[in-house]
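Sample entry as discussed:
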Amino acid sequence: MKLVLVRHGQSIYNLQNKFTGWKDIDLTNLGINEAIKAGQLLKKYNFTFDLAFSSLLKRAQETLSYILEEMDQQPKIQYDIALNERDYGDLIGKNKAEAADKFGPEQVQIWRRSYDIPPPGGESLKMTCDRTLPYFKNI
């Protein structure tokens, strides 16, 4: 058994350097092309999927859809909120540079990189691990 992990393609907020979190944002054209290329590479190396997993966020679901379309595969897909990316809370939609200007670069760095200090209204990395790891272990 093999587990293949793929991050979603570039989203609009990635392009705009904004905190995305749980905001449902579309892929950019580059993100679509990244997903297609990922599908082509997986097909080239003869990966076959019996089961696929995705978060509830459309950028992840769209990425998976493009990958599977390129591979001509239709495995069963399980969607779960446990696979959603980290919730950045009140920072969602804010440009990262503007957030650093507003709160100070050190504080934004603490929110982004510390293990147990969440951004306002959001999840710390520890909280994200507590949400996602049981899914990986049990499913």
Remarks:
- The longest helix spans residues 29-44.
- The chain has a mean pLDDT of 97.
- The longest strand covers residues 51-54.
